[in-house]
Amino acid sequence: MKYFTSWPAGLPGRPIKTTAMKQFLVFIRKEFFHVFRDRRTLLIMFGLPLVQIVLFGYALTSEVKNITLTVIDNSRDENSRQLVNKIRSSSYFVVDESSIDYNDVLAAFRKGSAKCALIFPAGFGNDLLHQGKAQIQILTDGSDPNTAKTVVNYISSITTAYQQEISRQRPLKYLIIPEPRMLYNEEGNGSLNFIPGVMALVLMIVCTALTSVSVVREKETGTMEILLVSPFKPLLVLIAKAVPYLILSLLNIIMILLLAVFVLNVTIKGSIILLFLESMLFIITCLSFGLMISNTTNSQQTALLLSMMGLMIPTMIFTGFMFPLENMPKIFQLISNLVPSRWYFLIIKAVMLKGLGFKYIWKETLVLLAMTLILLTIALKKFKTRLS
Amino acid sequence: MTDKVISCRELTKRFGDFYAVDKITFDVSKGEIFGFLGANGAGKTTAMRILCGLSFPTSGQATVAGYDVYTQQESIKKNIGYMSQKFSLYENLTVEENITFFGGVYGVPAATIKERSRQLISNLGLTNEAKKLVAGLPLGWKQKLAFSVAIFHEPKIVFLDEPTGGVDPVTRRQFWDMIYEAAANGITVFVTTHYMDEAEYCNRVTIMVDGKVEALDTPGNLKQQFNASSMDEVFYQLARRATRSAD
């Protein structure tokens, strides 16, 4: 049996020409084969954002409608009645004015028959007219913090509106405490805030986890060794590994944005090109992070664990789209500065929701750029030390 | 000197106080099947990594395919093939795609790849499997394919790192037929193995103990020299002298 003798031989003495670009393309093609043949990769890549968008868009909506609000009016004056009417006329609340005692309210909360309550102290209107300020108490069920926060926000904004209205009629300025805090999202569209959040989260996970796993996989299967022995430059191996994920991640962004616009009715206010360029930068940040992880680990499990578990939770917490960063202790606020997605989230919010241009986000862009350079340098250094 | 494709002179690799490779000296001629033996931790892998252009020696000289291991690693890489004990093709690529990929990485022109891979696939009897994923092939076939891929770009030397691990005796025999054929075509074969019957197939064998070359000759001469009936015995006599345990 002859295996090789009948090979069409190359020209004798033919020098093997290695055109780097050609090698590079061959490599990238191979990477695409890997991605398209691995259902899990594809599922993570495109299934994850889909699920997240649907979950955050519909299931996890923070919008509250027709919630029963127990009102206890101990003052029963003109002002308290006016405010209650305002609340009633909003579509958010069904007002329940069953005259129950303050102590009974707490019992009702424990039983779960009350979800939120608004309490006017005796002399509410009097305080307001004569001292210029008065207090109301909003009780909410803290075991459901999202609804609770939303309720507080709604009532606060209604109260502010009312306060402005009466201030206009009279010479004095009136103040009803608590101060409302609803700085964004006036129309109450819950999708607005989380779309940038999902983009940040998905890109962070997809890029970081998948690149790190794809490099480590080659180490595990032993093919990395073959690649290193080949004339293919080690640095090109890393870049070629990252390129398919860059392309796929850009497709991913398009998908997320299409879903946001056509399914969740979010309008993109700023420049799409800017949005894309910034996203590309963030993707490169995440890819560098993935490469760094892959150069410090040897098994796919470790890489996956590090990038999924190690990143998912900090990303969710410190990006600022689920939990407001301003309310966190100082130390956590400082830590959040180290999370790349936090900066990307700010950028995307500014461009997409507020329609701001580059001059408002250059600082954030610079931070991302610096992070990318640092991560990439570490990744390459680690890669080189592994080689020798 | 022209037909010496590998040449080492007092090649040394030191990690701190540890001499992984300690002043090894040998030559390998063109078309030779050169067995590189040694217990685990004897320094085989380290020496091989240097010769493949993966790491630098601490001292000594060596040239591979005429290129210097200190300064011409890139040229060395272009002129060698490599196959390791771990199965080293992509499981989720087809037979054809694997050949195309590695051919491309080594810069074989596309037309040559096409023609040669068609021929190779038919010679290996894999015509029906050409478009199937490598993952589905039996191990023996995979190893034969891996070897063919390693010499696909017609390197001057092919390094085989325990290529037949886990393969059944019949397939191993076939595998060695392939090695003989490659050697007959002028490709130098540098092979490490733990199977002593395979050592008998080599033209010359070197046995490393504790980073040093303790024996280097044809299997026949070695058996005579150590007054042994088989390579197994030769190896055992030498390996017993080792003071270092596996790393």
Automatic annotation (TrEMBL), chain B:
SUPFAM superfamilies per UniProt: P-loop containing nucleoside triphosphate hydrolases
InterPro entries: AAA+_ATPase (IPR003593), ABC_transporter-like_ATP-bd (IPR003439), P-loop_NTPase (IPR027417)
Protein's recorded name: ABC-2 type transport system ATP-binding protein
Keyword tags: ATP-binding, Nucleotide-binding
GO molecular function: ATP binding; ATP hydrolysis activity
Taxonomic classification: Bacteria, Pseudomonadati, Bacteroidota, Chitinophagia, Chitinophagales
Coiled coil regions, renumbered to chain: none
SMART domains: AAA (SM00382)
Domain (ABC transporter) ranges: 6-235
Chain segments annotated as transmembrane: none
